[in-house]
Specification:
With 375 residues, this protein is of the alpha/beta class. The chain has helices at 11-23, 62-68, 125-137, 160-175, 199-211, 300-318, 358-374; strands spanning 4-7, 29-33, 37-39, 58-60, 71-74, 77-81, 86-89, 94-96, 99-102, 107-108, 141-147, 149-150, 153-157, 182-188, 215-218, 222-226, 229-232, 235-238, 241-245, 248-249, 267-268, 281-283, 288-289, 330-336, 341-347, 351-356.
């Protein structure tokens, strides 16, 4: 038996591997990724303000894989053939499988003119550390923080971390007695950024911004960046630092791979996370485009749920059973501001927005709990 291959070391990948092994102690499992490491992205917001060091968020996965008897292959996928049964790697080698789970995450759309002048937090530890150095080097001025979506798939937006970064920087500046030297501006082509969180959450975040003296430049198409300015159709925002989350698209390796793609460049999936037209090929997390509501989240919590569902459905398929599990859409996050947090929960039936100082500490507790489970 060739077993199951998981491409990626994302939250969705880790969840899938854990569930595969829990349900089948013997089936061979291989993981292909550049490094046996997961970056705990949810806490990158704390690196720029010194609450975490970048290396604190690198979680080695070798002990996890060894404990579960998983074979790790250091490499990057280049393409597929044989209806998904063969994976081609960038080093020229190939790997065959009986079942495949794609969990390689997404990438940023970096086509806006002057994008090199903007810093993108979620590019990883190095980017978060570079933002920290930039902020510490400023004695005053304007910090412009913004995010945008994928024009071909407008619902794909990741704005939560930028709200956290914005509110966290404001708190940090107050704590270090420098708030009066800085102008903070949120910019976005959306008039109501963060709509996937729900109307109540957006209203609450915009109200927090007003109370903290944070300006908003919203509802204007972005034109370009310069070293000291953000240019939009609604005017120019002067900036001494530009922190920007571009829209997302699918991973580079799936382009031209023969996999069915959505208009935004993501791997298509059905309600059971199967890739249409391919047997025993599933996709989870940010790499995929899924049926569901327009607020379908791209976040670790949803990827974790999808990883579990894909594992169960794939094992059923390998046994000749029809997959039946569905990953119900569920958005859950804590939007942190260093001095408090806002819990946002959204499902197809329920919604909740709750603010409390304790939620800042709860976010840290979730990080420690997740990391401990991998060690």
């Amino acid at each position: 038996m060739r077993g199951i291959t998981v491409i990626g070391s994302s939250f969705g990948a880790v969840s899938a591997v854990r569930e595969l092994r829990r349900r089948d102690p013997a089936i061979p499992i291989s993981v292909v990724a550049p490094r046996a490491e997961l970056v705990y992205q949810a806490s990158l917001i704390w690196v720029p303000v010194g609450l975490r060091r970048g290396d604190d968020l690198r979680l080695p996965l070798t002990p996890f894989y060894d404990r579960l008897g998983v074979r790790f292959i250091a490499g990057r996928a280049r393409g597929l053939d044989a209806a998904g049964r063969r994976i081609h790697l960038e080093d020229g080698t190939s790997l065959e499988n009986d079942g495949l789970i794609i969990a390689t995450g997404s990438r940023f759309i970096k086509t806006l003119p002057g994008i090199e002048h903007a810093m993108t937090l979620c590019e990883g530890v190095e980017a978060a550390t570079a933002i920290q150095r930039r902020l510490q080097g400023l004695q005053g001025g304007t910090i412009a923080i913004g995010f945008a979506g994928n024009p071909a798939e407008p619902t794909v937006v990741r704005g939560g971390p930028m709200f956290e970064l914005l509110l966290g920087i404001e708190t940090w500046l107050r704590r270090t007695h420098r708030r009066d030297r800085f102008r903070l501006v949120l910019f976005s082509p959306s008039a109501r950024p963060g709509e996937r969180l729900g109307a109540r959450a957006v209203d609450g975040l915009l109200d927090q911004m007003r109370r903290r003296g944070i300006e908003a430049h919203l509802g204007h198409k972005l034109l370009k960046f310069e070293a000291d300015a953000v240019h939009t159709e609604g005017g120019v925002v002067p900036a001494d630092a530009i922190l920007f989350m571009p829209g997302l698209t699918g991973p580079a390796w799936v382009q031209g791979s023969g996999l069915p793609l959505s208009p935004g460049g993501f791997v298509r999936a059905d309600a059971y996370l199967r890739v249409p037209g391919l047997e025993q090929v599933y996709v989870v997390g940010d790499a995929g485009s899924y049926p569901g509501p327009d607020w379908m989240p791209k976040q670790a919590h949803m990827a974790d749920r999808q990883g579990k569902v894909a594992a169960v459905n794939l094992l059923d398929a390998l046994l000749g059973r029809t997959p039946t599990r569905v990953a119900r859409p569920e958005l859950m996050c804590i939007i942190d501001s260093l001095d408090s947090g806002t819990l946002v929960y959204r499902s197809e039936r329920h919604g909740l927005v709750l603010r409390s100082a304790m939620l800042h500490w709860a976010k840290g507790w979730f990080e420690r709990r997740y990391a401990a489970a991998l060690r």
